[in-house]
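haha ok so turns out i had the wrong file open the whole time. this is the CORRECT one, sorry everyone. sequence first:
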Amino acid sequence: MQLATLAAYPLAIYALLAPRVLDSQINVGERPEFQQYPTTVYKGKIVMPAFKRSKPDEFLRPDGDHRCVGADEEQRRLFFGKRKPNFAGQWTVYSCTCGTGCGSPFMWNGRTGEVYRDFPFAYVSVGPPSTGWRGLVHTAESRLLVVEGSIDGEFRGTCYYLCDGQRFALLLRIPFPSPKR
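then structure:
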C-alpha cells in the first residue's frame, strides 16, 4: 500500500508539527470521505458568535464588516440566532461574501461563541456561475472540510482539510484539469 506524501504541500510542515490532527492515513488515489473523520454533534444551547469590536482598519478580515456580522445585536440574532453546528460537531461555518461568487470563511463554536478565522486560505471563489464548483463542503458529523474552487486565486481544484478545532491540516490537494484550448 503506497501512502500519499504531504511533502509537496505548503501545510506539510504544519501537519507534521501537529500529528494529533492526522489520525488516519490516506492511500494514494483515494479521496478522503466524511465518514472517515466522525465526531459527536453538540446538541446543547447554541451561543452566539463573540465578534471582536474593532475599527475596520485594525483587522485583516474585520469583524466590523456589517454585511457579514450585522450592524447591531438585533441583526446578529437574525443572522446567527437559529444556526446550528454544521461542521466538526460544535462549529458553524459561515462565509462572508460580497455577492460575486467568492467568500471569506469564518466559523464559531456553538458551545463557547469563540470565533475562528485562521483558515489555511483567505477566500474561495466558486465563480463564474457556470463552473459548478461547490465552495466549502462540510457536515456537522465530520471533521473533514472539502474546499472546491479557486482558492486565494492561486490554486484551482479541491483541497481536503482535517480540523481538530484548533487548526486545519491539508490531507490531499487535487488540481482541476487544465481547460482545453
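Residues 12-175 form one domain.
again sry for the mixup
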